[in-house]
Fold each of these.
Amino acid sequence: MRKLVVAISMLAFAGSAAFADPILDRQALMKERGKIVGGLAKVAKGDEPFDAAAVLTQLQALQANAEKFDVDTLFPKGSDTGDTTAGPKIWEDMAGFKAVEDKYLADVKAAVAAAPADADALKAQVDTMGSDCGTCHQSYRIKKG
Amino acid sequence: MAWLKKLVGAAVVVGCVGAVTGWVLSAPVTLDTQTLTQLAPGDAARGKRIFYAGGCTSCHAKPGSQGDARLRLVGGLELKTPFGTFVPPNISQDPNDGIGAWSVEDLANAMLKGVSPSGEHFYPAFPYASYARMKPSDIADLYAFLKTLPAVAGKAPGNSLAFPFNIRRGIGLWKRLYLGDQPVVALADSTPEAVMAGRYLVEGPGHCGECHTPRDFAGGTKKGEWLAGAVAAEGSGIVPNITSGKGGIGGWSEADIANYLETGFTPNFDSVGGAMVDVQRNMAELTAVDRAAIAAYLKAVPPHPNGYPARQKTAN
């Protein structure tokens, strides 16, 4: 019995260790998101050539990234301290935070579904997503030195 | 005890002279007639540019406003600072609750001298320390544009400030230290026109230095650390260094800066955040020429290391 308890607790420990740092996990997702949006923004602006298939692949990657962004897992209580720029308002207004994240996911899905045919169509979508980025970072992120 | 009487008498005299001097020095100063004559009838279309460059809506629209609601300047945002809470007032065209009854001279005295139509000092949370560098003709254009915006009834709550900051008259002394119409960054006459134009937009209407420059004990911007970034005066966190010094934006090209102001995306794959979100939305309303001018100026300002302390990394 005792061995079983030890085994279970070891498993539990190993399990929690794998997901021990929601701060690092959410930062990795945000970094990936920024890279993809930044790449798409260059195409939308005309700095890079428009290739419909490549753009769609990137939009799909963006959707996969957004779907992985599970707020409950990534922003548990207590993860507001440490090496993070997540603002306290996330936990004060969790519903509001989830709402802006949901809007972003819906906008990304709409972009994938629309499959932009040219840079102008993509630009409209990138503008919408960029506005979502700003809306969230306005209230829910604290810039630190 | 005669000496004591003399001492008390002398103290009273010194006190009176001090009080009178303080009273005289702290008096609100309004614009001279020469400046007022430059307020020829303005042009609303040109004033729209000044409105967005000046960021009026960021503080004077109801917090969280989007789209056309940003033109309803009803006030009510709370700026929580170490001096207390400042609440930007209603500056819509409502004649009673807003500024619908103001003349163009009233607006010019407010923006260039920080003095209200009733002759009182405004608090410099209203960034007239920057607006003082604006051309009177731009104020006239802004006045014409404000006239096209809706009247919205409703007074915003007053400021709530701690002593001694609740004594408005004291601001007169502050103005003697910090208010002037001279540019911060001296530029040679041979400086490219775009840099000059950018200096005007950044140091004047754009009032970028109000948040991006650290302040001294009396709340004046430290000109020796101009745009070096600062601990946020309002809210929490920091406002970034936008010079080319260490920690700043030396790695950004002029095109990067202009693109950021237009789209909100940084060259480092991040997005605009905090109070800058509203500012960037205003900057997006300007022309590409204006944004390029701002970028050219920012690349020309003297580089400084960060004007805020390094981050204390805490262990998880």
Note: The first helix of chain B runs from residue 2 to 25.
Amino acid sequence: MNEDILMLQTIERYLDGTMLPDEREYFEQLRKNTSEIDQMVVEHSMFLQQMHGFKNRQNFKHSLNGVHDKLLAQGVINDGEETTFKGKVIQMYHKYKKDMAIAASVGGVIAVVISGLFTYFSPVVSSNKLQQLSIEFAAIKKNQQVQGSIINEVKSKLPKNVNLISGGTGFLIDAKGFIITNAHVLKGNSAIVVNNEGDEFNADIAFIDTKKDIAILKIKDEDFKTHKSLPYSLDKHNVDLGEEIFTLGFPKNDITYTQGYLSSNTGLDGDTSSYQIQMNSNPGNSGGPVFNKNGEVVGVLSSKQIQADGVTFVIKSKNICSVLDDLKRDDTAFSKLKLPTSSSIKGKDRKTQVKKIEDCVFSVKAYNRSLK
Amino acid sequence: MKAEINEQALLKGLANNDTKAIELIYKNNFKTVQSLIINNNGSYDDARDIFQEAMIALYEKAQSESFVLTCKLNTYVYSICRRLWLKRLQQLGKFSNQIDSHEEAVSVEEDLEFHLRRNAEFTIMDRALNSLGEPCKSLLEGFYIKDLDMQALAKQFGYTNADNAKNQKYKCLIRLKKLFFSQYNIGE
């Protein structure tokens, strides 16, 4: 194994041109005389090219999405979803087109109907869409202002002159102060968490996985009193369709309860790592725990579909557990992490459950600390 | 003539992942493609998907120096999208070879084939990376994709020094290469 590493290291240095002239000459001689080494160089160079192409593509995709979202926000392009109606009509038109050689006049009539439908539907729909979007933006802005003012009133633990960048919800998965949330909630490099009483605690971003959209915060604050135990556990089993679920989150400054039901065992485009639930969610709900009726966490609320009402997606607990298991194995900082195993609120009525859970759900606020 | 020069400059910008170039091409083409797809049994999400895929194809073509546009850029983008969408519809078994469009289109078969080959290659790489497990995956991604240096990576992953991290990186790399080539040589 060690020899392999040495060889690879040498080949990489040869390929990126950091070899000294003498060494280079010697190595080239070696390549000429040993076909295996020559082969390894060719193979590795090809591999690096693949890697390079892969990297470029990833970066480009990133740019594309950035541009798309920007143009969408500017209104240069729009997500005129409802216009799919035309698609169906046209499809119908196609279906019958063959027969219409005989009855061309019918085609004319349908064409008139289609164009009528176009003009009737499209303009109204798109202006509706755009308006909705702007309301949403304004609402978010307002929210931030409110948050700002309250933070100023009570002495905040936020450093002075930093602006909050993003926020959402998080919840304890270990009574010692490990909090799980979404990666997209944490757009900044630092975070504080706030409990339902408005007490703030400094937290470290201990782990972040943007692909799975999971992040872990560790509360690092003297004022934080560790809980004796958590009232809920993580349930790895699949939830049944139609099962009732609920969440607690911070779409505003006070904790908010919302309930709904499981509508599909897969997320957007058949994504098996998520559930789809029917529940009204708002910006700020991201990262919140989703409970079944026994008060077990079945997932983390992560996103909603823009074009549909109340279609919300939840990252399954199973996935969260697998991430945590990997972490516990590979990272010493997490080796002592202990997931809650039983739910003490099973069979209690909802009000009691929520009361117990409340203390373990936090509002997460991320900001950028200058790293001077 | 002037338009042609501009389009070549635009392609060059695109090849360098220049946001302004991407934005301009996006602005000039997305709506047309969106109406093509929505009028042919697709949704807004499909349009976004197909259009971005075409952009990727164009981006990767633009990077080879031998690439010269033989028609207007708009026509090219439209044609690629049209072919990609036809292909998608066929895969879904929704449609035969007819597609409703009012724009001029050129044949892009060869370029599309090149793109699909690239897709297959990158899928292999993606799969290989994802089956590595952590911390190998993030370590290699950090080094080869995010361009972080060994010092920073050692710190991020908690290795005591850069040398140890480097050693680990090579171990991971050997595993990744094995995974990659075992798939690559079979040829998908």
Note: The two ends of chain B are 43 Å apart (CA to CA).
Amino acid sequence: MTLEKRKSTDGNTEERRRVKGMTGLHALYRKELADHFKSRRFLILLLLIGGTSFASLYGAISGLSDAADSNFLFLGLYTASGNSIPSFMSFIALLGPIIGLALGFDAVNSERAGGTLNRLVAQPIYRDSIIIGKFLAGTAVIAVIIYAMGIALGAVGIVVTGLKPSAEEVLRILIFLTFTVIYVAFWLALSILFSIVCRHAATSALASIAVWIFFAIFMSLVASIVANAVYPMTDEYSMLVNSLNNYTLEQNLNRISPYYLYSEAVSTIMNPSVRSVNIVTVNQLTGAISGYLGLGQSLLLVWPHLTGLAALMLIAFGGSYIGFMRQEVRSN
Amino acid sequence: MAEKSRNVIEISHLTKQYGEKTAVNDLSLSIRRGEVFGLLGPNGAGKTTTILMLLGLTEPTGGTALIEGMECTRSPLEVKRIVGYLPDNVGFYTDMTGRQNLRFTGRLNGLQGQELEDRIDRLLERVGMTQAADLRTGAYSKGMRQRLGIADVLIKDPEIIIMDEPTLGIDPEGMRELLALIRELSVEDGRTLLISSHQLHQIQQVCDRVGIFVDGSLIASGTLPELEEQIRRDGSYLLELGVHPCDDRLFGMLYQQEGVEHISKEGDTILITSKQDLRGSLTKFLGERGYTIQHLHQRGGDLDEIYRRYFEKAGQSDERNDFGKKKKHGWKHRGAQAR
């Protein structure tokens, strides 16, 4: 179209221009989403999560048959382990981060390496819509995977076992899945941050996997070492004096790890018999009637965890946002 | 709309520093509506930095850049709506087809539906990529990527097109087509083009005006004849001459010509430095004495020579001599290869 022609349609153009800020975000979001769904990576993740989910369901069903407690049996499909197969909940706590990391580790640096980033930033869109679009699309994919798997697991469970979930159980499961999405979105945000900081996709993949392994495996070791150093438990006297402080410190250090935070939160949500997340003394238990916590009470117990997870996610995303906005566009 | 000013791009005292290093130093430049302006300079001269500042992608340390009266750093979105940018080494999403890539860019620019599809078809036709439009861009050659890049820039129908090293790594045939397209964009569509390059020969064919950019400073700008004239005024003429037979007697006779200052031999070519244009008189003189002129060329007429001269001048007055010399050497080397 020549410029003359264009001027004749200028009124139309003005209209178009006003809404463009949002259009950019929308177009980016759609493109990222399509990219994810079409990618082989998505298929692999789906197979990985699907496979482990159904393995855990198999374990749970065989474990459930000898469960002593017949209340909230349906939740057992998600939390029970059997035949030495871990439960769905612990599988997701361990493998969930993989989804987030795999979706985000090359978000920005691959665009930079492929020369598409400077083409993108030269378009009339706000620069932050690039990073927001990527994060939102990634989170949408995560939500799709998690909810689909969680609900499919329950559906298969109903068919196989004939258990009927109560309304409270359904609610608890939905809350559990929502927690999971936030947890995995944290890992997505973290891997996007690494993809901005590191020039090569391989470096950022390695860095984010290192963080994941550290939190999943080594954080508990570090926490106990630090706790033992601060409150030694070497002889009987120091054990008597320090044990409470030692345990509390270790637990608080562990809670820095999103892995631990998430595990603690969801095991409280999915298990109504958990009445406390902190240490309880015999004194405090005096006069307590054993029973289940209501959903509201369970939620109240892990509200700080939820806030903490959401905050971690926002911090990671905020870091990548700032990093991306301040970064030079040129590739060399 | 108010009467548009003559100058589309107004850069005044633009400066960019990266720590100690000054990438762009007090650049002032105006680019007129509808012209093709060539920004010439060696690698690392600050061309890309200047372009990024024009697009509002990099904050200048000082000075201002205006496009159509809009400040580039203050209203980058408005600027990017009318400016198309073809980066060097343009890349596409490799697992999408050429058409899908264009569609995505179109959507980012707020186009959609049939209007977008029509425009994509027209542009693919125009850059000659209709055949390959539905192949994944991962399979494209460098030349095809470049052509798709131009279609990509044209999607938003920009008034101004900025190309960063568009001729890099293109084969001769592709180059010819590219230059023809650049001409067409300027002449038929009336767009303004800013082209940065270090490949002088190609650029001189299409540019109305050029600016020579060395170490962050614009050391000269104007049309080619202007630059040539400027060099002549403070320099001398250098004539390349190839004559048969090439004997000693000839040298003696040449020295007697009016205005000749120095004669040297470079392979089979005789180089004559003189105060005036000798071409006319020499042709007649040699012809009368039975010599055959095989080659006669006034140096300075092409951009390469102009560039070399300006560069020598800049190098001499450069305070940061070490740096300047190193670069100068590098440039000369490349220049020699290109020739």
Note: The radius of gyration of chain B is 23 Å.
Amino acid sequence: MNKPLTEHIKPGAPPIDLAAYERTGGYEALRQALASMEPGGVTSMVEESKLRGRGGAGFSTGMKWSFVPMGDQAPRQKYFVCNADEMEPGTFKDRFLMEHNPHQLIEGMILGAYAIQAPTGYIFLRAEYHASQTALARAIEEAREAGFLGRNILGSGFDHDIHLHTSAGRYICGEETALLNALEGRRAIPRAKPPFPPVVGLWGKPTIVNNVETLYNIAPIIRHGADWFNQLGLTGESGTKLYGVSGRVNRPGLWELPLGTPLREIIEEHAGGMRDGYRFRGVIPGGASTDFLVEEHLDLAMDFASVQKAGSRLGTGTMIVLDDRTCPVGMVLNLERFFARESCGWCTPCRDGLPWVEKILDDVERGGGREDDLDLLAQQAKHLGPGRTFCAFAPGAVEPLQSALKYFEEDFRRHFNGNGCPYRSESAASGTRQVPPGNGHRI
Amino acid sequence: MATIHIDGKPYEADPEKNLLQTSLTLGFDLPYFCWHPALGSVGACRQCAVRQYRNEEDTQGQIVMACMVPAADGTRISIEDEEAREFRRSVIEWLMVNHPHDCAVCDEGGECHLQDMTVMTGHAYRRFRFRKRTFNNQYLGPFINHEMNRCIQCYRCVRYYKDYAGGRDLDAFASHNHVYFGRSEDGILENEFSGNLVEVCPTGVFTDKTLKTHYTRKWDLQSAPSVCAHCSLGCNTLVGTRYGGARRILNRYHYDINGYFLCDRGRYGYEFVNRPERIRHPLLHEGAHDTETYSKPETCSADVALKEARIRLRRANRIIGIGSPRASLESNYALRSLVGEDNFFNGLPAAESHLVTVALEILRHGPVRSASLREIEEADAVLVLGEDITQTAPRMALAVRQSVMRTPRETARKLGVPAWHDRAIRDVAQSDRGPLFIAAIDETRLDDVSTAAITRAPNDLARFGFAVARALHPEAPPVDGLSESDTTLARQVSDALANADHPVIITGTGLGNEALLQAAANVAWALLRCEKPAALAFVVPEANTFGAGMLDGRPLREAYDAVSSGDADTAIILENDLYQRTHDVDVDRFLGGLKSIIALDSLRNATTDRAHVVLPAGTFAESDGTFVNNETRAQRFFQALPPEGDIAESWRWLGRLAAGSAPSEEPAWKYLDTIIDAMVADYPELRGVRDAAPSADFRSNGARFPRSPRRFSGRTAIHAQFDVNEPSPPADHDSPLSFSMEGSTAVPPASLVSHYWSPGWNSVQALNKFQEEVGGANRGGPPGICLIQPEKNLHPFFTEIPATFRRSGEKFVVLGLPHIFGSDELSRHAPALAERIPHAYVTISDADARARGVSEGDQLVLRIFGREHKLPARIRPKLAPGILGIPMGFPGHAGLVFPVDGHL
């Protein structure tokens, strides 16, 4: 009951099929909602649950749904879209859910679609997620056969069907409006907002786009109520969260924990602390596009508000730990290389600023860095900030950079004067491997 | 109106506009790239950053893009804010990361928006120390040069080409800092409006390939305001010239006509001016007629030619004058005055002449107005009846393409999306388009945005039009025997037109069908009777067809009759190749029956080859004169080149001919204003011609307006190898323009604008400073005067409904198919444009092809008037059976008057 997302999941086991899902109460929430709740009632309950989007931005899910025009004047065609384009570096939470329990996503989507009265749903899935694709395709088929999808679901008069669409790839498709463009067969470029998708979305129609993890919460909320969900969190924010840790910790993995679990507990207890011979230097808390947190933040409650107050973002809640034997400049370079490559190319700062940042960092790593690169990088980070670019991609992309400049300035300086990366020579000297072996998921 | 605050000062603003457009209108130099007044805002380049404050107390504010924020009442922004300025510099710095800095060898150099904006933001020193990325360039056809390395990824090109002009073969490829703008593979850009990329592109990625062959910097181009000579719309152009040649055409903004864009015929047709087949000296051709004593024409002096011409005129029994729809109003009038009313013929075949008269009568006796292109663009329902406007009046097709966005824009407005927010409008609109109905003989290039497109034989198109009128109003005559589907569609069209606020009906003379004009008039009149402010747009074939028509000349047929009946023996033929207009057998007979032929023209042709005296007429580039466009708007064009040698406007030659032989005798019309005054006195209807542009004595602060830009540098270089003295500029007694760089620096009246330049604004976007508001009316009002204002009284409906088309036996009706590239007599001579002319062909319907076992590409033998034309077949699924089409005006069948009977 206190792990609504993962309680029935056995890591490594094949996906839970329809029968198994129904045995554990699956589709009960849907039956309940279709039989006894108005669409608006579903939205209100989700609003009352205070569920916030788990894709990274943390916007209130129920409020988002409430923006969809309802009633006779509203367009008949609406869409409910699941954003399963999980491409955030270091993030592997949605994949874990979809590969193991696809029906809970489908049930959440049908409930959401019912709430906004959308006859059509899409799952926009990252192309590389083959196991998820197989699991979802089969689950959709099962749900169709069982009458949970299709016309007149469970005799309610509500029609809904879900189409599985695998992305052609690109990180920006995770941005909900770029996702809609990609789904329409256009260039994956974010749209101007406003108008927001709940009013003008897929093919110009009202559309809700929700993250996978967000949607896994819907059925449990409908079944157990908003109050139950509210009390799951530790710090006043509702529900649980899938937290993940990668880096040189003893047990990299993924855990469903109450929202607001302290950072120290996640890293030291669940991830087993740092590996021998490595010291904690910092952590990017929510995927690659969030600011570093450092030692002073270890007692931070990992909820949306607290992390924001500390100057970063909870993001996806899947963190990458920086140790003392890894070069922060190299780490940021690695991330900025990714972001520079994944920029959609629509707006100038992102398209031309990020590759410049990447080149400077690369030069710094190779020993070409200069003192004034610090100002240049800081200036780039500032000018790639919120409001200056077309979407949130670039501001996110420079969050690790700007915080690295703040916390690890000395490391940058050590690269200058033709030195290049000091860590590279250290690791070469000591003969340690740069990349630790991978590890399985742990709950 | 709203009040906004910019850097602490209040300004009046239009809340329907965004802050960028507003700031520019107010005169602030706020840099921008991706925004374009005609294309709207998309927020891509991030160049127009300003700081916006929430209210008076807010001292923090935030950086916003001016193009994405409405100028709502109470808005407070700072353009001068240091951080905003720093960010704007930074945007240029980013754009310069990969820009090749090849200004010195770039055709855009000196008129480059990127250069201007770079200077404006103050970015000067390069901090990027790494390698630039490079691209391959593509072959894009004869019009456009492609140099992708210069690209700053503003996305204007694809937004213009795809979204605005409906092109399909230019796109953005790849992503991040490798975004590439081009075609999927090398090849000719297909869209008829591709040339505008040259002006839309803010730097040197897309440049004018014809200019490249005779390149001159903007600051060395002597330019004058002109009017396009290649169709009836009268788009305004700027003709750039140097060293006696025309170098390029740029768009000259006309708020009501062409706005920011021209078609490719208008932009690239100019090169005929520089051709070797130009007639530059008078020619005497004694043996023009006599195949026995055939001699080559000899060049002679103007005096000798005039003397010879006068002798021939004196000896004449009766002189007839043949005017021309491609000659100016003044030249036609001069001819008419010279030969007298009874001897003046308008130079049109009888059928066309009749259609022009019918169209003019419909406009005169109203009460329906003639639609300007802007009105078409803003129409919320359009019916195109019969005319293939993409081919006959291309810029109108571009306007129609915009009209279909009006309804979606309205939908977007209801969702709170402002009209300038192109990005969001396209997300809202998706594939929704407003009502556009096309009735044509075959598919057209506008069908992709049409609500419905039907193809029928011309008579059936007219019948459809009559049916629409009938569906609108019970007094309109009913159409018997219309098919059920056509009746239903006619009802749908009438509903759409009746529900519109600004419906426009478009038709033309292209199919040679009078009933089409009448049907279109009936629809417009029916709408007026339903209290809808309908407007009507007629398309006629040439730049001055309506002008020639308004001089009441009689058709060519009657001129031919006058010769065959024996009383006329001498003809003056004004800028008219009769072999392009009527059947060569008729022309041969006509010319053969004349004792003397005096021809005035600019290019050698079959008619001038048969003339005894040929006088070298100026082209539009060397002439002052007036054209009357398809809305009956009189517009003046001015000399961009001082005529070389003996070249002169036809009206000037005719004035000298009329003056008589004494050397001391003054020409009948010495100056443009003199002939206009005489013409207006004779034709009260042409009154407005005088006011179409300021007269020659107009001055601004006592000075003329210079044709050369202020930074004109080449004047002493022209003959530097001989003499470094500066030759004195040619005098100009006909216009308030000077052939020099000296003169008034004020913004001239729009009809006298020779180039767009303003301090800091060297590119075409200096146009901003020549508008009342950016994207709005020309300063001082758009040029030209509409000559015909409709009467207020309702006109009774036309009642003669043609019979439905039925083929008779084996006979086909052959129609002329207009081609944007190839059907226009003059532009055909332009080398770049000539590359785009297709080979002649014949279209045949699917059914006829099947019945005769014809496959695509088969050589068909088409017999017309007993002559065989061998043409490859193009099978058209939507063409009506019984109809064939062949390209209009192509060599081999140029003089055919369509429709005409033919046999396979």
Note: Chain A has three domains: 18-230, 240-323, 328-430.
